[in-house]
Design goal:
Helix content is 26%, strand content 29%. It is of the alpha/beta class. It folds into two domains: 124 residues, Spore Coat Polysaccharide Biosynthesis Protein SpsA, Chain A, CATH 3.90.550; 45 residues, no CATH class. The strands form four sheets. It has a four-stranded parallel beta sheet. The protein has a two-stranded antiparallel sheet with strand order 2-3. α2 links the parallel β4 and β5.
Length: 177
């Protein structure tokens, strides 16, 4: 029997650094808002249901997403208190009991379905969590993945990292399963 998968897409970012009036996830790439590419990728990776966590201007995000999928529920994150808080905004969807949960950012449209499938495969093989990481030539600003003997011990945000941890170039890609 196939494993069920809920994909939570975090789309509450305001895009401040982009200096745009438009919500960041609605910026078009190849004719579609970024968040729509993320949903399509997750669907190709076997996503059964999608929970989109929005912030301000949620009606605009909802309208764009509904144009590409009817398997989406929406949840509003009224206060921005971090990634875990954003995921908890979709608690109702989580409580429906899926085998796998993917957490993606709505502004990462270039992730490949194969990447998400590999992360889910790790869960199928018994991993409790899978976190996408990458090696950066310049890791400044990125959260670090702290490992010991090949096992993830912690994710440390740049501003909270010790001098020793700042020398690590294995960074958090922000996608979790």
């Amino acid at each position: 029997m196939a494993r069920t998968c809920l994909t939570i897409i975090l789309a509450a970012g305001e895009g401040t650094r982009m200096r745009s009036q438009m919500p960041k996830v609605l910026h078009p790439i190849a004719g579609l808002p970024m968040v729509c590419h993320v949903i399509r990728t997750a669907a190709l990776a076997g996503g059964d249901a999608f929970a989109v966590v929005t912030g301000n201007r949620s009606q605009e995000v909802q309208a764009a997403v509904e144009a590409v999928s009817d398997k989406v529920s929406f949840y509003e994150q009224r206060e921005r208190l971090g990634t875990a808080h954003a995921v908890l905004a979709a608690r109702e969807a989580l409580e429906r009991g899926y085998d796998d949960v993917l957490v993606l950012f709505g502004d990462t449209p270039l992730t490949r379905p194969e990447t998400l499938k590999r992360m889910r495969r790790g869960l199928e093989l018994g991993a409790e969590v899978a976190v996408l990481g990458f090696h950066a030539d310049d890791p400044t600003g990125y959260g670090r993945l702290i490992e010991k003997d090949g096992e993830l011990m912690a994710i440390r945000e740049h501003r909270e990292a010790s001098d020793e941890e700042l020398r690590i170039n294995f960074c958090n890609g922000g996608i979790m399963a």
